[in-house]
Amino acid sequence: MIFCISLIMLLLAGGNSSSPNSLSQEEERIFQYIDGHQDEFVQNLAGWVAVESDSIQPHLRAEVTRMVKIAAASLQDLGASVMLRDTGIQQLPSGQNISLPPVILAKLGEDPLKPTVCFYGHVDVMPAKIQDGWKTSPYNLTEIDGNLFGRGTTDDKGPVLAWINAVKTFKALNIEIPVNIKFLIEGMEEAGSIGLEELVEKEKEHFFSDVNYIVISDNIWLSTTKPALTYGTRGNACFSVQVECGEKDLHSGSVGGIVHEAMSDLIALLDSLVNSCGHILVPGIYDDVAPLTEEEKKQYELIEFDLKEYKASIGVKEIIYDTKEEIFSHLWCLPSLSIHGIEGAFYEPGIKTVIPSRVIGKFSIRQVPHMDLSKMECQVKRYLERIFSKRKSSNKLTVSMEMGAKPWVANINDPQYEAAKKAIQKVFNQDPDMIRDGATIPIARMFQDITKKSVMMFPIGAADDGEHSQKEKISRSNYINGIKVFASFLLEISKLHKTLQEAPSLKTMT
Predict the structure, then answer these.
(1) Over the chain, what is the mean pLDDT?
(2) 124 a catalytic residue
(3) Which of 274, 341, 358, 370 could form a disulfide with 337 if both were Cys (CB 3.0 to 4.6 A apart)?
(4) Is 122 annotated as a binding residue?
(5) Residue 398 CB coordination number (10 Å)
(6) CATH class of 236-289+334-405
(7) Is 464 annotated as a binding residue?
(8) Any idea which residues are catalytic in this one (predicted)?
């Protein structure tokens, strides 16, 4: 019995005496091909970046659809079977209805003896204009000091193309693709993935029925140099707090000092939510937060973290906490509350001595596992109503939760995490950081809940890539090595999946 268990463990660990970073002949050929064709791969990215596939602005919807069709054509060139699925109509705030871009469902390979990996990505981008402060044209890929600048380079056109180029390399070298691979690529992620959840629900017994692993490459590393695998994200609950004091704006000279002002009430309410150390003041908000485990503390110790580099990458001089454990736990394992803006207030240059009749404050709470959205909504509303009642204001208060996305956590011992670690070791010659992401990526939780499949986040972008910013980029090195690591992952997950399939038969030897 002990011998058989030890043999299974050995097989799961790799089961050979060679170095874990040693490359097979296939991998050497694959990596050499990718290095030799890197200029071609960069030109492919330039072509994709040139498409202004901004899903936020309705007048650019045709460009988003064009970008989806370009991606679909790239998959068809690989020999994939491609479907463009309609997801319906979007109604704009103006009442106008416009078509949503189609969603790509593609598959390559149907071998029942192979695992099936499904990759998710998106080809839409956030708005970008040169007058926003870009030093390069956002839709003209520009290489500076080994960095490829342009909108969508790291979020998410670069990673999507890296996956396609990894498969393309197998095809070019006539190497059998070791897995069945599926692609789900959309064009509305930056606008909230409208219509996608309904499509995934419809397809859970069809497109996803034979899927073993789902991989998402739509986030970044914690470091600028060290790869990472992501196993969790925080959720996000967005609130609005509206205070109304009258039917019209008032003159501060005529009535200032004799009425309860909406802006004063709102500022007091917003100020009551969080203290200067980032601690949320809403009673009960931390009751369901899971304590930091010893396993996570050990993971934190393994993460290479340069506080000076981190502050430089986010562009601030100081942060509230000084130690790795404090920083990571507050980013990943504890909720945070951020105030985002006030609607209805005068914000242009100069002075306007008006008392606004209605103002709306906007804030969000990034919640963590075990926090209940509906319970938190009640806690927030009850607390703000209590604070408001203490002001004895005659104004009208309305608190509402506009949107709620749940947190996501994966099992880092799932086979695809092990396969991804091996691939990273071979390409980058180091172990990855195992991290959570403080942001919210609802698609991960949605896939996990609906399909009941293993989900992994596998980023290739660095911490300083500046998604959504005027300096968005991906380094040439990360882009090319990303193609290699995705190709290596397909080989590794195939081997590991086969070992796991065979492992039960070893137990019968007992």
Answers:
(1) 92
(2) yes
(3) 274
(4) yes
(5) 12
(6) alpha beta
(7) no
(8) 124, 189
8 Å CB contact between 158 and 460: yes
Other Cβ atoms within 10 Å of 348 Cβ, number: 6
> Does residue 8 surpass a pLDDT of 60?
no
- Give 355: exposed, middle or buried? Use CB within 10 Å, 0-12, 13-18, 19+: buried
Phi then psi dihedrals of residue 220, to 5 deg: -130, 170
Establish whether 132 is a catalytic residue: no
Q: What are the sequence ranges of the domains in the chain?
A: 2-233+407-500, 236-289+334-405
Q: What is the CATH number of domain 2-233+407-500?
A: 3.40.630.10
Q: Which two tokens stand for residue 504?
A: 């039960």
Look at 3 and 26; give whichever has higher pLDDT. 26
Angle in degrees, 0-180, between the axes of helices 415-428 and 476-507, rounded to the nearest 10: 140
Encoded tokens for 287: 């009751």
| Active-site position among 27, 54, 63, 124 | 124
The pLDDT tens digits for 293-339 are 888 888 898 898 888 888 887 888 999 998 888 999 999 999 999 99
Q: Which residues contact 391 (CB under 8 A, 6 or more apart)?
A: 260, 265, 268
